[in-house]
Every structure is written in structure tokens, then in C-alpha cells.
Amino acid sequence: MAAAAPPLTERRSPRDPRIDIMRGAALVMIYVDHIPLNELSRLTMRQYGFADAAELFVLLAGFSAMIAFGRAFERGGPRHGLWQTTYRAAVIYLTQAGLLLATLGVVTVWRLYLPIGHPLFTPVIPEGYDDVSRGLALMALPDYLDILPLYVVLLTLFPLVYYGMRRHPGLTVAASGLMWLLAWTQPGLNLPNLLDATGRGWSFAPLSWQFLFVIGAALAVTLGPAGSLLPQPRWAAVLCWVYLAWAYLLHRWADVLQSWDAIIEAGLLDKTHLAPLRLLDVLALVYLALGSRRVLAWSKHAVLRPLEACGRHSLAIYALGSMMALFGRLELGTFGPSLVMQLGVNLAGLAAMPLVALALDRRKERRRSG
């Protein structure tokens, strides 16, 4: 029988900057990747391996949820914990609804006055009262607005994750892994998305992606106080580096190696159901980061504070990035994806996100001091 995890309330150290910095980096990459034909996306993690920023974001969301809401359960009891998770899930749902309605309004007005020359740049959005109501019911998820609904589901289920981690962490991870394996081998186990012409359902199948969220929660229990390092024997680190190097070479030289199509056909890179190669990619990356003394030292540098602030205010910054990316797509679709236009769109978004995050930090400090 697996030993129960120690109470999270024993950890009174501040937030771990590595987690917030990686969350901030994921948000920045999501913004960049959500703009089609964006040359800056050549620098995001999806160009260097199997996984992309979505995997990193969900894994760290599980880590952060275990710390924040786990403490709520331990300090305030089940009722307080349930209230906190339910309240947060409601806030995320309202954010999703607001983004959906804002996207519909912006695109509708834009089309009245400006043409969008290439359909690639037009967000797929519900049109008409029935479609909007389905969107609000999370049955019709537009492109680029499909990760928050997953988080609503995961937070709703978080009490089960928390109590499983407190009593039988190993068994909880194993059960979660079995659900992931079942969902990956049975693609029909997904929620419907009426905007998906392929009929696959949600872009992030909850039964699959919950495994990454649960692994993140397990990491939070395993890692210990902020600033701790994951145990990292040399053989494990070498194995992770070898895997990441293989993923990079296979991705960058797919035409030469002639194995990329075979991997795709085997379903090993399927994002909807979190295929194994994608899962292993992000796990290797985070394991190396959280076990590295060098990464721990870098995380304390002042130059990374704006990125850390983005990670601390992830929901607000995600919403801001989603709207900035929407305008970026519309601008590039209307005026053309020239390098000058791309430069303006990228600078606007990448400046606004940390500035707003730092402003939210300052407001939070003023409230504490007041």
C-alpha cells in the first residue's frame, strides 16, 4: 500500500518561481502559436519536439492546483475546499463565456468593415443564437478557445484527485493512467464539439488530459517546499536528454528520416488524446527542469520576473493573450502576414502580457499593505 503524502500545510515557503516562470513561458508560447504563419512560432517548444505549450500548461496547472486548493482543503476542511474549487471553476467558465462572446462580437464587427483575405486567419466561431448557446454549454468550442473548458472539468474533479493523493498517491496516479490508456485506445471517449468537422470532439479530451493534470498534482506532493529539487540520478537525466534529442532530430529532419508519417498514422502524436510521445516529451522536460540546480539558480534572476508574474496571474494573462492573438489573426488576415505586420503583432502581445501581469502584482501588493 502506498504511503499517504505529507500535509501540504507543512510547506510554508513562498511560491516556487520555477513553476510560475514555466507557466508564464507556456502562456507566451500559446499566444505566439495561436497566430497562423507567425515566424516567431519557430522558436516555441512545438518546433523542437513532440509536445507543445498546452501540455506544459496543463501539467503545471495540476501542480499549482494541488498546492493552492490542497491547502484550502487542509486548512478549511472539505466544505471550504469544495467552495474554493467550485468558485475557481465558475470564474474560469465565465472567462470562457466572456472570451467566446467577445470573439463573436469582434469578428462580426470586423467583417462588416474589413475583409479577411485568408480563411486560415479567421477564428471558427459559432454563428446564430443556437450555436452561441451551444458554445456557452461547452458543446461548440471554437478554435483557440478550447483549453479553459478542459480546466473547468479538471477543477470540478479536483476533490477526487486531492483525496486520492492524500491517501493513496501511487494508486491514484495508476488509476489516472489507466483512464488515459483507455481513452487513447478508444478515441470515441470524448465530449462532443459541434464545431469540429472531423467528429473527434473536444480538442483536449478530458479523460486523456486528466492524466497530465494528475501527474502535475503528484509532482507537487513529491517535490516538497519551494526550491526543492526532484531526485535525479544520472541515468534518469541521461535518458531524458536522449529522448528529447531524439524527438528534436525526428521533428527537425522528418523528411530525411522518413518516419514522421508512420508515427502520425500510429496515433503516437495525437494531441486530442495526449499520445504517448507527447506525454513523455513534456514529462522529460519538466523532470529535467525541476531536478536542475542551474535552473533553480536561473529562476531567481530579476530578468525573469515579468515572466514569473505572467505565471502567477495565468487566467488573466491567458484571456488577454487570447484577445491579443484574435486581433493579431484578424490584422494579418486583412493586411497580410508581412514581416512588419508580424513584428507589430508580436511586440504588442509580448509587451502587453508582462506589463499587465506586473500591474496585477502591484495591485495585489497594495491590497495587502492597505
How does this structure look, described?
The protein has 370 residues and is an all-alpha fold. It has one domain. It is built from 15 helices and no strands. The radius of gyration is 21 Å and the shape is globular. The mean pLDDT is 88.
Structural class: mainly alpha
Average of pLDDT: 88
Task: Summarize the biggest pleated sheet.
Answer: none
Q: Which spans of ≥5 residues are poorly predicted at pLDDT below 50?
A: none
Order of helices and strands: HHHHHHHHHHHHHHH
What share of the residues does DSSP label as strand, in percent? under 5%
Percent helix: 55-70%
Query: What's the Cα radius of gyration?
Result: 21 Å
Structural domain tally: 1
Distance between the termini: 49 Å
Put simply, the count of helices is 15
DSSP E strands, number: 0
Silhouette: globular
Outline the fold blueprint:
Blueprint: H1 17-33, H2 53-113, H3 129-136, H4 148-156, H5 158-167, H6 169-185, H7 206-223, H8 234-252, H9 254-257, H10 260-265, H11 276-290, H12 293-298, H13 305-312, H14 314-335, H15 339-369
Helix pairs in contact: 1-2, 1-13, 1-14, 2-4, 2-7, 2-14, 5-6, 6-7, 8-11, 13-15, 14-15
